[in-house]
User: What shape does this take?
Amino acid sequence: MEYLIGVDLGTSGTKTVLFDVEGNVIASKTVEYPMYQEKNGWAEQEPLDWWNAAVETLRAVITESGVDSADIKGLGISGQMHGLVMLDKDGSVLRRSIIWADQRTAKECEEITERVGAERLIEITANPALTGFTASKILWVRNNQPEIYEKCAHILLPKDYVRYMLTGDFATEVSDASGMQLLDVPNRCWSDEVLEKLDIDKALLPKVYESPDITGVISEKAAELTGLKASTIVVGGAGDNAAAAVGTGVVVDGTAFTTIGTSGVVFAHTDKLSIEPQGRIHALCCAVPGAWHIMGVVQSAGLSLKWFRDNFCGAETEAASGMGVDPYYIMDKQAEKAPIGCNRLLYMPYLMGERTPHLDADCRAAFVGLNAIHTKYDMLRAVMEGVTYALRDSVEILREMGGDVDCMLACGGGGTSKLWRQMLADTFGCSVRTVASKEGPALGVAILAGVGAGIYPSVQEGCRRVIRLNEPQEPIRENIPKYDAYYQMYRKLYPALKNFYKELATL
Assistant: This one.
């Protein structure tokens, strides 16, 4: 029997899954770690937390499964995108990683735009300068912590730091590298022009591979720590959303998915690169060699619901523990008690600023229309509906660009909620399906590892062999105009508050 491993390095934790070559889960283990927010808008994590979590989860799935490590034919890593990992010449971490949710780099984005030129930047990197992307973080460290920047010998993304610790190789792949704002996205290589204009030494960056390519093998030291066999191949892997695309079978034209994790994403595959000239939606290389994807991002999707749970749902969390169920299961049942529109209550999910379509690091979350009539159930459902409306913003742009969104796959923690999936179907006006496997990104990078190991002849063939879909959840016809009325009202809120957000950020 042959096996594959997918490591999913997320924001809240790392999940490692051992699969057989038919995509069946043999063993799974998750280890959580903290996020540090020393100032409003900052978000950092410790790279060693990721590595320790990878070691613990790898050892756990191998030990618990009883699988002979010699039968594990390959490993892939999915990772939260955009995080900045800086290493010195000895490979030691120089500072905490500034991760994707961090919003401190507005000035550096202005600097990037001025140096490269707004239109030229989009032509090369397929995106405007964004606070979440890695390039602005590099400039922030150079501008604010020059003593650290001077010691920097290697710049990596989160999953690529774990790769380095596993193999000793400095490597990345095109899907994750696309989110650094240093890659020539049309040509799938580092942009000498952008690097020169930003005065970033190309030697700091790792070699770029395609996602199924073999980038190295497990070292003797890593083998001792993890239980893997030395010389086991490690492939390029993918950024979390590109990995989720493979794990849901979104690898050919006309396919799309919505994921509701910490952030929210609407993702569509394309064999032909399409760049939105205003930069409202991302265009990136995908995990299929020679193909791309267009993607809208909501910064605080599942994070909004987690924030509400942590601050207002203590009783539900305690009750769930006693019942042996997830707190979100109880919260779903409570949200169902509120009507569509939550008795005229809207929620704007901007806890960490916003990307699509506003590109505004200063905007913040808000409940609008709050009245003494409202209950916690109304507020809970309003959070779910507000995230859904924010995701529809991305769907509308995809449709403007000619994207086909007749059926949407749902994944991520929010995708497991039947209520939330129905909101998506009713608000998007299309059927919503789920994949039989709940492993998304981990399964995606395991398939990529299978391609690298020669088990599957291509990413598409690997998906055809492994991915199985559940029955579609269709829109409820009478709900569509109800949601649409509230969505049209939701669209008016950001323009009305935009200037207020700028003033608030200066206090």
